[in-house]
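Input structure tokens:
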């Protein structure tokens, strides 16, 4: 779920990064190499909450107990064309027990 608490339209896609907490830092998990993301841009209007379902198990089938963080990039529609410094990140932690 992504809540747009800004006054601008934001755009995000399907790609995500998954990291695991090792007690000191976040370490990026290695995804299956034969999986790809479809290239779709989702717009989220100001005040809108959007649910984007992701098949984490399809990309990372061997996750073990621990604390994880899923992160997605987004940008503001007003910044198109987007440069790397206009890319923003949101993250959510979760646990597997």
């Amino acid at each position: 779920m992504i809540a747009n608490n800004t006054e601008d339209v934001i755009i995000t896609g399907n790609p995500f990064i998954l990291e695991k907490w090792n007690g000191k830092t976040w370490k990026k998990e290695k995804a299956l190499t034969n999986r790809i993301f479809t290239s779709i841009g989702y717009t989220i209007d100001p005040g809108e909450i959007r649910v984007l379902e992701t098949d984490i198990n399809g990309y990372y089938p061997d996750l073990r107990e621990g604390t994880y963080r899923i992160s997605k990039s987004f940008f503001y529609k007003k910044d198109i064309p987007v440069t790397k410094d206009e890319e923003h990140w949101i993250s959510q932690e979760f646990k597997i027990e």
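Strands lie at 2-3, 10-12, 17-21, 26-28, 42-44, 49-50, 66-76, 88-96. Residues 56-59 form the longest helix (4 residues).
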